[in-house]
Amino acid sequence: MHHRPPPPSTTKISTPFIILATTIFSLLLILSFSFTSSPPPPHPHPSLFPNHQPHRLLFHHNPTNPNDQNTLLPTPPSIAYLISGSTKDTARIIRLLFAVYHPRNQYLLHLDRKASQYERDNLAIYVQSVPLFKAAQNVDFIGKADFVYPIGASALSATLHGASILLKVSAHWDWFINLNAADYPLVTQDDLLHILSYMPKDLNFVNHTSYIGRRESRKLKPIVVDPGLYLAEEDEVFYATQKRELPDAYKLFSGSSSAILSRKFIEFCILGTDNLPRTLLMYLANSPSSASVYFPTILCNSRKFNRTTINHNMQYASFNSRQEARPLNSDDFNDLVMSGAAFASPFEANDLILDQIDHELLHHKHNKPVPGGWCLGDNETEKCTHWGDAEVLRPGPGSKRLEKSFVQIFTNDTFRSSRCVYE
Fold first, then answer.
1. Which of 59, 85, 229, 411 has its CA 20 to 30 A from that of 280?
2. Beta bridge partners of 224
3. Could you give the angle at which helices 154-169 and 263-271 cross, rounded to 10 degrees?
4. CA of 275: how far to CAs of 27, 102, 282, 301, in Å?
């Protein structure tokens, strides 16, 4: 038996129908894409940023010339904060975030991989529930966490990772500050922004010295292997049996891992064409003290930046006989105030001195933002529930302490001679 082909008329009818249906479907698909677009990115709340005006103050009003403050004061700067912590540090990070918060600034939070994903999720959920943070659109998280070991290069790697994200997130900040959960401010952000508004934006505040004695050599010559750079699970840092000589292609400088660094310098380290930042990073990959050496060494070996370096990181610390920073407590409060520093470290979690700083220096509750010129609330305890212009600053006594400290630094006879000195 032979099968006959379908009648020609059937083929002639079905083919145009298929073509027509396909064409109509494609047209509808194109039209649907044409009229369906993703929502525009959210913008900060207009009450916080109504316009970009010069720096305005809420004190020292001059009745004979009411406009003199607006015409003479520089625009307030913006600071990018990287706030880092580990497991069980969620509450400390939140407290520190409130203590250093200002709508003009940018914030990046990092809980390292020693913390559980549950802790990271809880931190994100809490921060996203705060109306102020949502309105200002200036608090972000590092989703893919890094391991951070106190010895080795993983801490430096995490800092550079955070700085690179902050460069991408915002093009408007002027200085980068890396804080740990054990750090805490001694002045309000209005105090700090007010004083920094008078500073050249290329200045870098970092402790540094080129002196390398026996103690320093023990931190620089050993070779270590940091598992945070290559292992997915937590492991121990181990030391190699051999040691290496110090480099002679550049001079090593050591200092503090905490610093106030200019945006231009951060861009130089991460995006610049000079190879020194990458060369030094490779050398320090197996060094025990990478974080305290990297930034001072680049600053002082670069002609572009070695004259922008101030030998003070604006952070107070007290050291024991082994030159290790000891935890601060209430007995240190007067020294903290008299130091004129912007920050201090380290503090133990929930130590009573933190409550004292909140009450006497920052004038806020630990779970509320520090009141500034942008806070318009009538209630003393809820001042920052109503928002005004973030360009308006209300400096307090902390700005006077900072001003005095900077005057002492800049008028010191050894100010110029102490910058990037080869000892």
1. 85
2. 239
3. 110
4. 53, 35, 11, 12
According to the model, what pLDDT value does residue 300 have? 95
**In this structure, is residue 32 part of a structural domain?**
no
| H-helix segments, 45-89 | 68-72
What count of residues does the chain have? Answer: 423
Give per-residue pLDDT as tens, 308-319.
Answer: 999 999 999 998
83: nearest Cα among 170, 184, 180: 180
Q: Is 361 in a helix, a strand, or coil?
A: helix
Helix (H) or strand (E) holding 125: helix 117-128
pLDDT in the model for residue 239: 87
Domain count, the chain: 1
**β-strand partners of 184:** 344
pLDDT digits (tens, 9 = 90+) for 94-127: 999 999 999 999 999 999 999 999 999 999 999 9
Q: Which helix (H) or strand (E) holds 184?
A: strand 184-185
pTM for this one?
A: 0.85
Q: Residue 40: inside a domain, yes or no? A: no
